[in-house]
């Protein structure tokens, strides 16, 4: 299939490109941007006049509820939701059912994603067996099975185990993905520890639950030299600590969930469990600190932290509900809203969703360079629309952004040169 995308405003942060030009695609790869290659005859032409054309988005954390089909959400429906949001590559954390601690599970997830055919899934292997924080996983075998790195969603209590896990990962050239949390300080908490938690009578999780873990892991990185990525930060203090570590030359990076850049503990006042997330929504000072971290480049990527749930998962008392937001379909709209609010430029926003995640993962993606895989997102950046639960493609509609109005809508998504989503006129 030969495709030409004409007259779009191409924004490719990897190449500092921001101009009107055509893109030519052959056999799943970009062959030229600008002038047509000799003898090029397109099978399909996409008119992108007045639209923004950028690399397909890369989401550093999204759960598709496979292969165990927990909560009944499937790779098929979630892949469709990702494609509709311009997302072409998704990193799947290891806490699936069963857990990604064997090559068989890693391969199964990738095979099912290939069968769905609408997005590419890169699994993270479990840093420890069964994510229990006691015995190291077979990292080399998981790497050979396609795992892009190693992670431990749950806190590792034993610092010696964490040290050995980092050393093992480093010996195999693997990046360690860590959601920083101190097990003992997280104990039974469900919201940020502060005035709101006290007012609501809900058990709190202090900021120190995150910063203590960050400090420990940075000390280990300094000794071992392992590449480490801090996932889904929630506190301004943690951002400052990572900024200092980067200044000192440590091989660290970080991301933040899109919802943490908008919501705070004040959104909990109506006791709506749709705001129950982990790490918890913190105070406005933390939210502003996270935004500054993104603007300054300390936080290099924005992710969805997509966790689709069935409705009954949010029907219990607040702390007994399942944490998480169905967030694939709001990743790009929320990021674009940050541009409207002048947190950063459009090019910087797209970089946080494309080339920066690609660099963190060490993959050849997130760019529209000639020769690159043709993962492309086409966006009508002027279209005003409203998120409605009943129109979401994800099987999970547990979103706090229902009825929010957004500016910017994906019209086409291409995965390896195939159109996998096209907005109906």
Overall description:
This protein is an alpha/beta fold. The protein folds into two domains: 2-53 and 373-389 and 404-422, Urease, subunit C, domain 1, CATH 2.30.40; 56-361, Metal-dependent hydrolases (TIM Barrel), CATH 3.20.20. It has twelve helices and 18 strands. The protein has helices spanning 75-84, 103-116, 139-144, 159-171, 183-186, 195-200, 208-224, 236-247, 284-296, 331-340, 346-353, 355-361, and strands spanning 2-12, 17-26, 29-33, 44-47, 52-55, 57-59, 87-92, 120-126, 149-152, 176-178, 191-192, 204-205, 228-230, 252-257, 301-303, 376-386, 405-415, 418-422. The strands form three sheets. Strands 1, 2, 3, 4, 5, 16, 17 and 18 form an eight-stranded mixed beta sheet that branches. Strand 2 and strand 3 (29-33) form a beta hairpin. Helix 7 runs parallel beside helix 8 (236-247) and helix 8 (236-247) runs parallel beside helix 9. The radius of gyration is 21 Å and the shape is globular. It starts with a strand and ends with a strand. 53% of the residues are buried. The model is unreliable at 68-72 (pLDDT under 50).
Helix fraction, binned, reads 25-40%
If helices are DSSP runs of H or I spanning 4 or more residues, what is the number of helices?
A: 12
CATH overall fold name of the largest domain: TIM Barrel
Cα gyration radius (Å): 21 Å
Regions with pLDDT < 50 over 5+ consecutive residues? 68-72
Structural class: alpha/beta
Order of helices and strands: EEEEEEHEHEHEHEHEHEHEHEHEHHHEEE
| Fraction of residues in β-strands | 15-25%
Shape: globular
Number of strands: 18
Main beta sheet strand tally, sense and closure:
8 strands, mixed
Distance between the termini: 23 Å
CATH class of the largest domain: Alpha Beta
The overall average pLDDT, rounded, is 95
């Amino acid at each position: 299939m030969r495709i030409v995308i004409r007259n779009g405003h191409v924004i490719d942060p990897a190449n500092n490109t921001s101009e009107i030009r055509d893109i030519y695609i052959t056999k799943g790869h970009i062959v030229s941007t600008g002038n047509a290659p000799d003898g090029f005859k397109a099978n399909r032409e996409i008119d992108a006049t007045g639209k923004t054309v950028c690399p397909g988005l890369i989401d550093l954390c999204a759960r598709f509820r496979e292969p165990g089909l927990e909560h009944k959400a499937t790779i098929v429906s979630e892949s469709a939701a990702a494609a509709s949001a311009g997302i072409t590559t998704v990193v799947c954390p290891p806490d699936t059912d069963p857990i990604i601690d064997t090559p068989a599970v890693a391969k199964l997830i990738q095979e099912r994603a290939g069968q769905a055919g609408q997005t590419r899934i890169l699994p993270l292997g479990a840093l420890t067996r069964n994510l229990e924080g006691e015995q190291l996983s077979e990292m080399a075998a998981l790497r050979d099975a396609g795992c892009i790195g190693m992670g431990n969603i749950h806190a590792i209590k034993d610092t010696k185990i964490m040290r050995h896990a980092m050393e093992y990962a480093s010996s195999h050239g693997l990046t360690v993905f860590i959601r920083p949390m101190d097990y003992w300080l997280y104990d039974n908490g469900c919201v940020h520890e502060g005035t709101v938690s006290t007012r609501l009578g809900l058990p709190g999780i202090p900021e120190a639950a995150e910063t203590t873990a960050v400090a420990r892991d940075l000390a280990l990185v300094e000794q071992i030299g392992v590449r480490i990525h801090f996932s889904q930060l929630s506190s301004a203090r943690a951002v400052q600590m990572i900024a200092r570590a980067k200044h000192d030359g440590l091989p660290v990076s970080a991301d933040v969930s899109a919802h943490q850049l908008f919501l705070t503990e004040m959104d909990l006042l109506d006791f709506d469990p749709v705001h129950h997330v982990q790490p918890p929504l913190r105070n406005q000072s933390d939210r502003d600190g996270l935004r500054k971290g993104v603007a300054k480049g300390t936080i290099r990527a924005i992710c969805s932290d997509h966790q689709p749930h069935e409705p009954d998962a949010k029907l219990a008392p607040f702390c007994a509900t399942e944490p998480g937001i169905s967030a694939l379909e709001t990743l790009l709209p929320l990021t674009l809203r940050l541009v409207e609010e002048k947190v950063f430029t459009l090019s910087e926003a797209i970089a946080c969703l494309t080339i920066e995640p690609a660099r963190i993962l060490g993959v050849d993606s997130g760019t529209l360079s000639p020769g690159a895989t043709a993962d492309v997102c086409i966006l009508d950046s002027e279209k005003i629309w409203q998120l409605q639960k009943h129109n979401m493609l994800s099987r999970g509609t547990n979103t706090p952004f229902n009825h929010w109005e957004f500016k910017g809508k994906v019209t086409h998504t291409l995965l390896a040169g195939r159109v996998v989503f096209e907005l109906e006129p």
